[in-house]
Amino acid sequence: MKTWTRRQFAKTVAASGAFAAFHLRARGAAPNPHDVIVDELKISYEDYLYRTPIKFGGNVLDRVTLLNVHCTLHNRAGKVAHGFGSMPLGNVWSWPSHVLKYPETLAAMKALGERVAKITTAHKEFGHPVELNVALEPAYFQAAAELSAAQKLAEPIPKLCTLVTASPFDAAIHDAYGKLYGLNCYRTYGADFLNRDLGDFLGADFRGEHLDKYVLPEPKPRMPLYHLIGALDPIEPGDIVKKVGDGLPETLGEWIHYNGLTHLKIKLNGSDQKWDVERVLRVEQTCAAVQQQRGIKDWVYSCDFNEKCPSADYLVGFLNQVRAQAPAAFERLQYVEQPTKRDLRADRANVMHAASKIKPVVIDESLTDQEALLLAREMGYTGVALKACKSQSQALLMAACAQKYKMFLCVQDLTCPGASLIHSAGISAHIPGVAAIEANARQYCPAANAAWAKKFPDLFNVKDGTMGTACLNRPGLGAVD
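and the corresponding structure tokens:
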């Protein structure tokens, strides 16, 4: 386990001018006694192999590395608290490189994590966790650029990848902050704790509003689970190439019976419209048969192309074909996620106005800041996917934006196990308008959930297609490290 303290790296960071000129304390206000400063960060890793591989965006993944962060901080009165954050280093998703191999992108993320730890502990301003993250984020991006140059990487570390790397640090700070005051984090986003209103973070449309307007102080007590159907996942017994044989379900029908599923997310290829439509039809056929056995009449789908659609026209054609060939499946389709390339500015011609008139179209990989959200909205996207792996602070600010602009809201997974699932579920349960929780680790990496399931049985043991989220009201982010 590596440890970074405030004394380390302070001179280097100060000399580099890496910190943003963001003043944490509201003008003319007395220092907020709730403000904190980070003293120490300890980082460690956990490695797991998946029980079955998952395919998305044309990539097949069979393993995960978790970045765990322990944080120590204190407030102006000197009171100390400890927090914990954890997140998968989703390098295949956040950095889908065609020139660098998996071990190279993973190693770069680990090296960046060490720099994030140094930068954060060297920061000398007190503040609320959201304010600290906003102040530090430009330094994280600068560190990524400097690391890319120093290591002569054939491809620079992307912005999304930097957000993923920094997210467990932000989570640990939020967690420690809530524990410092004996409050769940979602009770610490009002004016008593957060020095500035949302206008300072999100612009004039939000002047005079505070973050607690857009979050629920208490979690929704139960929420449906969105189950993932990966492109390699067996629908029927005949699809099984080799049985896992670990006692968990092997086919879609078995999973539906096992967890009582009513929400299903279908991964699609985007390169073969016939295959994509037929995949949805096969899912619908299996679901209809199994749900009839269970006496269930209502269930829903979402579709995720992971950027692989060549154009918006491809998506419109897909939706029209599903509607023509399987009207019931079409009616059950709640939304479509990230159909085309993540760089919206470089793909400006692929607007979604026509598609979003048919079904909500949601950005995921594209959502890296408010500018991206506003551009997506201008291009016809009607929804956003929040993700804990882009930081707690960003998820909250983007949730406020989405609600203000009346956009469709969902929370997506990064196959998050353990504490990272608790974190992600907490966002789902505390943001108005989010209807379900995606939780894929129980399918692909259940070993990483084992210890946590004993502490949070209602959350990790899915019954009747739902997860018990009333437990997500504990101090901090709610996990017990």
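(Above: one complete record from the training split.) Residues 2-202 form a domain with the Enolase-like; domain 1 fold (CATH 3.30.390.10).
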